[in-house]
Amino acid sequence: MKKALPIGITDYQELKSENYYAVDKTMMIYDFLKAQTKVTLITRPRRFGKTLNMSMMAEFFDITKDSKEIFKDTKIMETKYAAYLNQYPVIYLSFAGAKGSRYEIVKQIKLKIRDIYDRYEFIFTKLSRFKEDEYHKVVLSLMGIEDERLDNATNSLSFLMEQMQKYYNKKVMVFIDEYDTPFIEAHAGGFYDDIRQSLSSLLHNALKTSNSLQYGMLTGIQRVAKENIFSELNNLSVYTVGDEAYSKYFGFTTQETKELLEYYQMELNEEVKKMYDGYHIGNQDIYNPWSIINYAANKQLRPYWVNTSSNKMIKTAINEADKRFYQEYEQLIKEGKLDTWVWMETSFFEVSSTESLWGLLINAGYLTIEKIIDQTDGYCTIKVPNQELQREFRTLTSYHLHIDENELSRLFQSLIYERKEVFKQMYQEILLTLPSYHDLKDENSYHMMVLGMSAWLKAEYEIKSNQESGKGRSDIILKARNENKPSYVIEFKYTRDKKVDLKDLAKEAIDQIIDNRYDMGLKGRVIYIGLAHRQKQCEVLWRQKEG
């Protein structure tokens, strides 16, 4: 009987005890101990195994547990660090649930810390008078989950660590998963400044000034609150998706993906690679484990990651982006990749720049680094990783253009299924509702608008813009990937003259396509579309290639 697929399993003990399919990532423990870094921060996208790995780390070191059976068949037990099994007091926290309002964020953080205090209640039985007073103050602060205050609990972790060290005579391992979630949520909710200082102090006191810390590890999407948490912490190491260290431990390598699919009598073929491959983390080609596991369970090639990840953080950032980002975003859609400067270790919420926004999109898993051109300056080639992420970029593009996602869907479905009248109607309706960002002031305005929308068609069409074809440069060519679908050649015209008949202008666009042979190299059926504009007025002419 085949092992069950670990869909939604984030607890390492459950993974190993209940006979789920498990990919051995335990050599991450080896690298962690070998590095001897006081505090390690690893940034990875959601659903890339951060929580499961942090649970594994906590399970391995936890002095209150006997984990021999769980780790008996793993790679770490073949190394000298097997002796570290269950040898340290451990604090393991996840801030993944610290979302929503300020009240909910503070409440969830306090509840998580309260749970640890409950678990280690036995270590507080022999406190000195002064430490007992401090203990009662901490407990009182954690009891007050209704007051939206975190500033009175900023010593709760460091005090707990101090008492754990005294009880066990060993320093403490601290693992905090999704540490940046409350920062991101607070920024999106508009109360970042209200909560930043107390959150920073909580972590600062545990990870920087505490003498009871052995080693600490944090995971999240990005590095935040740099000045308050990490300043003067000389032994801090930050590993983003651009770094080689720890690169093979989050997500599945190509070999791990191949072995998993073969175990369930499936194949890692080209179609699977197009849908889910494309992430580059350090020196590794990595697959999103959530997508692969769900594909193995459902045996259907469809997006899985995008159905689980909130893009509220990305939308908030895009709202704050400058004009240069929008110009580069349109170039990314146009070319399929982009050479640009990327800041990976700076939070967009602290330094709102185009460079840090590209870094956020990469750290969050929406884009990947194809090539590092200049390591010193952070100049890279970035791209959308795969077809699964193309679907998410449809949502972001509609948001970027301030157009309803359903309207864009109907517009391009009308192209795919050759619904000429529907396409014309939907295009005219979109023009009427389009905001002033594009200004619609010349032919290029409409060209770039449609090009941005064309991100919706990446899976079905190869998109070319302003590329030489025939005897000139066509505006947009949509080359069908499936021979049963038609290819499209689209030409734009614009006039301010109210005397010009837009129907005649649309015909002029079609004639230009034919005369300049923009359809050269296109096989099968080809449809020409002439789009003539005057501000938000439009005429659409649709003609199929003869012969």
Considering the chains and any ligands shown, give keywords for the structure.
five-stranded mixed β-sheet, five-stranded parallel β-sheet, 21 helices, 18 strands, 547 residues, 42% helix, single chain, alpha/beta
Describe the structure.
With 547 residues, the chain is an alpha/beta fold. It has helices at 12-17, 27-35, 50-61, 68-71, 102-119, 129-143, 156-168, 181-189, 192-207, 226-229, 254-263, 270-276, 289-298, 312-319, 323-335, 354-363, 387-401, 405-416, 420-433, 443-453, 502-515, and strands spanning 39-43, 90-94, 172-177, 213-220, 236-239, 252-253, 279-281, 284-287, 337-341, 368-374, 379-383, 461-465, 468-469, 472-473, 476-480, 487-494, 526-534, 537-544. A hairpin with a 2-residue loop joins strand 13 (468-469) and strand 14 (472-473). Helix 7 packs parallel to helix 9, helix 8 (181-189) runs antiparallel to helix 9 (192-207) and helix 18 packs antiparallel against helix 19 (420-433). The N and C termini lie far apart (58 Å). The mean pLDDT is 88.
Summarize the structure.
The chain is 42% helix and 17% strand. It has 21 helices and 18 strands.
Distance between the termini: 58 Å
Residues in β-strands, percent: 15-25%
Rounded average pLDDT? 88
Oligomer: single chain
Rg over C-alpha atoms, rounded to the nearest angstrom: 27 Å
SS class: alpha/beta
Strand order of the largest sheet: 2-3-4-1-5
Taking the sheet with the most strands, its summary is: 5 strands, parallel
Assign an overall shape: elongated
What helical percentage do the residues reach? 40-55%
